[in-house]
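The instructor's notes for this session suggest beginning with a concrete chain rather than abstract definitions. Hand out the sequence below and ask the class to guess, before any prediction is shown, which regions might be ordered.
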Amino acid sequence: MGPWAGTSELSNGTAIDSYARSLADLLAGYSSSSSIAYGDPERVVLQHTGTIFAQDSWKITNRLTFTYGLRYELDGTWHTGKSDLSAFIPSEGVVYTDEGISTPYPVDYSGFGPRLGFTYQPKENLGLVVRGGAGIYSDTPALDNFARARASNGGATGFENNPGGSSPVTSLSQQTADIVSGQSFFESAGSASKVGLYTVSQDFRNPHYYSYYLQVEKALGERVVAQIGYVGSVGRNLEGLIDLNPAALNTSSGAVVQSTRTYYAQYPTYAAINQLTSGFSSNYNSLQASLHLKSWHRLQADANYTWAHNLDTLSNVSLPVINTDIERNYGNSSNDVRHALSGVLSYAVPELHGYNALARGVANGWTLTSGFDFYTGQPFTISNGNNDTTGTEDKSQLVDVVGNPFSGVSHALGSSKKITWINPTAFAAPANGTYGNERRNQLRGPGYGDVDLSVARRIPFGERVNGELRAELNNLFDRTNLASPSTTYNSGGSYGLVTGTIGSGGAAGIAAGEPFNVQLQFKLSF
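After discussion, reveal the predicted structure:
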């Protein structure tokens, strides 16, 4: 906190934003808060994996065929040959590999995946085919989940940041401090009074998916094929984090009381203990339809429509809203898209014959291709962010819904170049010691629509070399595809705003779905 902190404008009246004031204080040698981690977080880990499978098919009759198989996958645990990986075991505390445990979590031997499918043709020459199948699929846990836990509750972010073992990492922090030439900035900093940990459940299992489908395909004449069917899946043992050591809900002040943490009696200096667990689940159900047009007068086309619903208890590897009861987090998946329509249309322009070489060279080899994608918006949740008043310190609190979130909202672009997507007066800060009454992912963001056109010409250079000149017209009708709104609640009501388009957070914004743009390409093949 330096001399620029309270300065809002220059002497000539020019306003100074908070970022500029903070930078000025830093350059002047002042700091309001700072932290640093000492130690060696590098871990050179090894993991042994193996896969074996067998499959066969059995043609029972000319119209009925079964396909079946069995796959087995084995994913070993992380190991380094050193005592620098650890696990938290309540009865023993933090134990390290090659000292108290052999591996930080047990090997999962349950990777069996049987599969069965069939194809049935009720009658010959009817153009009707029925297909179905089911299978169990084992997934390999993503390695970064063991080293980069996505939580802001003070727990360690991975094995490499636990404070102990042969390569400990120690965090230092301090509040206001002055930058003095020739002196270590953290010379007077003290170690954190509370220590956050990371561990993996000793019951950890690899994710499994149970997938199944039933589809009917019908030929409509010689060139059109239609297909409709049901596709579904159930996910079990999905990865996620839980805090083993949260403070108790505090309905009085909403503040964190260290002495109410789960393991305070045994380990009074432990803060959040983030545990990677496999206790989450999901399910997906969909109706899928497609239409395929084979070459007809040099025209080909495909169209696909999906009506689906995806629900889960956690959509990414992070802390859930309600840490102590996973099933209470059940709701729309963050990836849930109810309706999706896509397709492509391609037309090969007829070639000229009987004209001179110049005319054929200009007119021949052209192809027109148009693609389209439309889908409904994805779910989102308004969170209380760092203003968490549950008392748990997990910073996963939602808010209270006190009105219709879409009442009185026009979704029109305002003078501030922002779009109010939800009514901020429909939300309120939750009471202390509660998670808020909002359902996880109950709100929907903007949808998406895009039509593209590609014009390409093949240019032969002899028998072995071919060139292709292509012009791609993205977002042909210049539809505005909005990004998701801001989702962190604040009492000033400046949330739920859309401030850009889908790709505005990236680089140039030249792609499908962005404002109308054209790309020219030339490719040479030999």
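Then share the key points. The chain has a mean pLDDT of 87. Residues 18-27 form the longest helix (10 residues).
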